[in-house]
């Protein structure tokens, strides 16, 4: 957590912010490109994050997405929230189509198993994610869809 984290949480709670998600994503990608993928907006905000690498279910092309995460003992939790938008992020469909992915953290790649959480494990995972990013609670109010939660398990 950095001194900017509370500011990031406040900005993330602004109700009209999702309209600017495409602009935010473009700015984030520019920051990543300029820094050669060493820095992203999540890093600047002092929030834990990973780069998810997963093969596209239709294209077969390896895709990468920088995501907020909740580190857990044996991996990471991620949520397909898209700021509470009604659309599900494309990476969610790609993860659902496979049982493995790669996770990048500070330039180090790790193989990971993929499990979409359900039932009590979903509830526990959701609470863990909300502890990292309180705005997840707002996102459930912005959308009618159930926001998926995945556990990416660290493989040896």
Could you characterize what this model shows?
It comes from Gordonia effusa NBRC 100432. One of its GO terms (molecular function) is oxidoreductase activity. This is Deazaflavin-dependent nitroreductase. The structure is a single chain. The protein is of the alpha+beta class and 156 residues long. It has a single domain, classed as Pnp Oxidase, Chain A, CATH 2.30.110. The chain has helices spanning 5-12, 21-34, 41-44, 90-96, 119-132, 136-142; strands at 49-55, 62-68, 70-72, 75-79, 100-105, 108-116, 149-154. The protein has a 7-stranded antiparallel sheet with strand order 2-1-5-6-7-4-3, sandwiched between helices. The longest helix is centred in the N-terminal third of the chain and has 14 residues, at 21-34. The two termini are 28 Å apart.
Topology:
Elements lengths: L4 H8 L8 H14 L6 H4 L4 E7 L6 E7 L1 E3 L2 E5 L10 H7 L3 E6 L2 E9 L2 H14 L3 H7 L6 E6 L2
Antiparallel strand pairs: 1-2, 1-5, 3-4, 4-7, 5-6, 6-7
